[in-house]
Specification:
This protein is 78% helix and 0% strand. By secondary structure, it is mostly helical.
């Protein structure tokens, strides 16, 4: 299980808060599975992850547009790739009947993707925002 740590902090408060929430909610999926919680609780946690990932991606996109971030195209391509993977998982979720194995797979996918994405892409964005002293989206 991957969890939030200070090594993932970007220095952009809104993005860090959203990252932390995504990690906490992925942990909720895992905890619900381990506790043998009902499918409804697991399903609600998975649906939140799908929905909130989209909210987070839009937040980052607003920052990139507001700051004329030169890495925007690549960064958005990374978001699109995860979105495709999450949509595929959602389709499998619907087809397979809310499998605990699939729920665990989604939590792991998101956690692992977030770590790599934060280190590789979000830190570049944060550095651009901080050094360019550009305001966030308003």
């Amino acid at each position: 299980m991957v969890t939030w740590s200070e090594t993932l902090r970007t220095g952009v408060a809104e993005l860090d808060e959203q990252h932390q929430l995504l990690f906490r909610r992925a942990a909720v999926v895992r905890e619900a599975l381990e506790a043998g919680s009902g499918r409804g609780e697991v399903k609600a946690a998975i649906e939140f992850l799908f929905d909130y990932a989209a909210v987070h991606f839009e937040t980052e996109a607003r920052y990139m547009r507001a700051a004329a971030f030169p890495g925007e195209r690549l960064h958005l391509a990374e978001h699109a790739q995860l979105d495709r993977e999450l949509r595929s998982a959602a389709e499998a979720w619907a087809a397979e009947g809310e499998s605990p194995a699939l729920a665990r797979e989604v939590a792991e996918l998101l956690e692992n993707w977030l770590v790599g994405h934060i280190h590789e892409h979000d830190r570049l964005l944060a550095t651009w925002l901080q050094h360019a002293a550009r305001p966030g989206p308003g």
